[in-house]
Amino acid sequence: MRLNKILKNTLLVLTACLVLSACATKKEVATDIQGQMQGDVYTGTDTVEYLADGVPDRVFFATNESILTTASRETLRAQAAWLRKNPNINVVLEGHADERGTREYNLALGERRANAAKDYLMTYGISSDRITVLSYGKERPVDSGSNPLAWSKNRRSVTVKAN
Amino acid sequence: MLKKIFILLFILIPINANALIEVDITRGNLNPLPLAVSPLSIDEKSRKDFEKILKKENIGSEISNIVENNLRTSGLFNPLDKKAFLQAPDIANLKPRFEDWNLIKAQALITGKVNYIDDKLRVEFRLWDVLAAKEMMALAFTTVPNNWRRVGHIISDKVYERLTGEKGYFDTRIIYVSEEGPKTQRIKKLAIMDQDGANNKFLTLGNELVLTPRFNPASQMVTYLSYFKNMPRVYLLDIETGTQQVVGDFPGMTFAPRFSPDGKKIIMSFAKDGKSDIYTMDLENRIVEKITNHPSIDTSPSYSPDGKFITFNSDRSGYQQIYVMKNDGSNVKRISFGNGLYGTPVWSPRGDLIAFTKLHKGKFYIGVMRTDGSGERLLTENYYQEAPSWSPNGRVLIFYRETKTNSKGEGFSAKLWSIDLTGYNERQIKTPTDASDPSWSSLLSN
Q: Which of B145, B247, B256, B310 could disulfide-link to B234, CB 3.0 to 4.6 Å?
């Protein structure tokens, strides 16, 4: 029993050391995050899936924003081109928010984000009949972390094939 | 159902109108009133009868434990250790020896007895002022044995009301969302329990995502958001019969529902084309009215207790802030002007305050302000917490709090907490699973 306790304490000390060393390399971590974020918009590809070759399924947003970035527009133009080539496919645009907001506001924000993507697809010739908007607010994060990088992956609109 | 089962309540002796002991509940109570809850006395025959029916060895002690626990968690009372009691329960109920109770520093004393009569549970109880050596109150109830927990809650409410001058909140229930599973694939069910965490029951199976249940203040109906068939819509649920129905026929997501104070309308948001507006639907004639019309997000509406005003959350200024308007949507006024973002405004049942969630510099606060936005007071700060709901007497707020996950995304939990309006007496309410989105019912018996 006693030994157990001692072991546990050692573990605790070890964990503490690990945490401290993580702090020491913070600079490195920060650049890593910078590599995957611009402002606080996610620019990495960790969670991205593809509707077809060269057609990413999702776009990312800044905190509290629903404005499409240059990269997001490029993604959506690729989606629109693919949808024009596949006129029988309908899509659901799933809008999401990160966990740092109240539940009800985030539901509305998710809808607003998915809708921004919908509007852009429509300006590139995709009929609104083929698009359904569905907000999940903060209910379905892809990354369960509580840190800025995780939150940036979760602020997204994902285009999902409906049929 | 619950209301109908109850009961014959009569006053044994007229209540003495002069308040003897008084407890001030308007400020943080750092010196809770010491009081003794003597176990309800029970004769051997009744004890055995109840043991057979309720599987409780001594129902008198069980009921007094409920009273004791309620009074303790209110933070206003300090129930004394029963081991120090000198007088036996049966004798104490007849005529307390006040010197004995004074000796252990009890200022108030609760005594009583339980009987099994005609298949019913009969309870009488008395509240005594020890210093003045006087009876303050005496009441008796008769009910079906299965209602024994509620008897404990009603006694607690009566004692609370007699000593504080305000209605209690113990004979109430909490509806909430039970949560299980990993954060990315959370399974959520509607659940209901007594205010003290007993009688927990799940109302949905977890097949679809459910959020934000809220009680009808006038009945045992609940409104909530369900993703049934992957379409987020506001539903109505009768918790006695289990029948459910969708509210209105909107071409898109409806969410953030609440009842009007008379229970006849539902107020909610409808999201379309990137904007969310507030609507009401009359539950009798199904007439839908649009209350706000703005390109912003307008959500989380909550009526004033007289039904004349609505407070809501809008980002029309650029960020989430709290607004108040007349119930027809006119006279919109922003009331939150402090630093940070404000959400989830809820009008107090007393009418004088609005509770809210505030986000500032990466911290979440539960706070209250007057209905004109003045007198902002933050009650509690944490990594994440939101969605306050008022106790029916407007003295306590229940909300939920989530923990931060570590770098691997582990360590997440969501729990219900309550705190007094004074900012004191913060407590976790135990639930069998993780929990969020609590809503407090009105008093079941009035």
A: B247
